[in-house]
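Hi L., both proteins are below.
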Amino acid sequence: MNPDIPSIEQLKEIALPAPVSYAPQTWGWWVLLAVLVVAALLLGARRYWRWRRDRYRREALTRLAQLQQRSGDLTALRELPELLKRVAISMPNSLPQGPAALGKDDWQAFLQQHHKQPLPADFSQQLAQLAYAPDSTLQALPPEQRQQLFDTCKSWVERHHVAA
């Protein structure tokens, strides 16, 4: 072998630098991390609380979808006013005396007060008609009006305002 050519046995390991920790080196980063963790926990708790509070709304929307599938059935139409009253009663902080006692103009005012978009002026009358009119009157309703009633009810259940 030629002495001028280095051999593999002469190679030496290169010294590596000391490992660097990924943990923050100053206390300010730890404080920032703690603030972020607390904020995430508070946000998660608030969303969970809202999700639990809106359980009645999800159940009402599910029932409304079931009723809408049988919109030709008179019992489905007759159940709409009851469903809206149940939603109003289930609303947290709705009224001190409760919305169950409301009728006609007060019921219309309550529905409009808790909805951001304008409702039909005779919406409470339409609901009363659904609840108390004879079957022949309900059978005479055109499909467009039935669909509009379901859409208005769905809109109110989805978008009604609850004071927290």
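That was the first. Here is the second:
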Amino acid sequence: MENYRRNKTTVSLINYHFVFCPRYRRKIFLNPSLGERFKELIQEICDDQGFHIFALETDEDHVHLFLYTLLSFSPADIMAKIKGGTSKIIRDEFSELKAMPSLWTRSYFVSTAENVSSQTIKPYVESQKTRS
């Protein structure tokens, strides 16, 4: 799982764990079709940008995303691409969200996987959906 990313001048292993929420902590992911569409969009964005998703789960009102990327992308760049790339499409496709000026809060949590192995974080993210 932990493959080093290489380009002409660097070798890196940058793993990020993100947690982010819809505005007003709305429980948008209670709609299963919205959750599936969101995951499709995230996969498209990550494929386009060269990010590799280790784990992606949605809970009622938040998202856990664990990925690795090239050194050239900051966490702020990644969140801008993901939030910006999903907000308008999701609001256009799901009429119950059309009135929202934006889908996501400006805030997010991010952590690197330097002190915890990827083998620990991936099961944690995947267990969020089934937690009681």
